[in-house]
Specification:
The chain is built from five helices and no strands. With 123 residues, the chain is an all-alpha fold. The protein has one domain (2-117).
């Protein structure tokens, strides 16, 4: 019984990682469409790219641009890997909620830095 449970867990982990890899080209295509709507729309899809390129963090352009490119390609496979790691100890739903929380925290931080950077938004 334990061996069957272990083999199902390995298949589910491989499937989650594969889903993260497959989601990358789809997200890149969606990003090309969302870029026409402005940076706010792109922040919902790639929040960590916006964080890497945010001027308030003072990351030099020679580091920020390659980091943003790497983040665009690695964000969803890393989400799949995070789900696999969390799922082994806690279960599928907790892993899914963890990834949603990490993505939402990135969106919130990107908007917070954007708000702090704009002098017209501050009281």
């Amino acid at each position: 019984m334990a061996k069957k449970k272990k083999s199902e867990s390995v298949w589910l982990a491989a499937l989650l990682l594969l889903a993260g890899i497959i989601a990358t080209p789809i997200a890149l295509r969606a990003a090309s469409v969302l870029a026409l709507s402005g940076t706010n729309a792109l922040t919902f899809l790639y929040p960590y790219v916006q964080l890497a390129k945010n001027p308030m963090l003072r990351i030099p352009g020679s580091l920020a641009n390659p980091a943003a490119q790497w983040l665009m390609f690695l964000q969803f496979p890393l989400y799949g890997l995070l789900m696999v790691v969390v799922m082994r100890g806690r279960g599928f739903w907790i892993a899914l909620n963890t990834v949603v929380f990490v993505h939402s925290a990135g969106i919130g931080l990107a908007y917070l830095l954007n708000w702090a950077q704009n002098p017209y938004l501050r009281p």
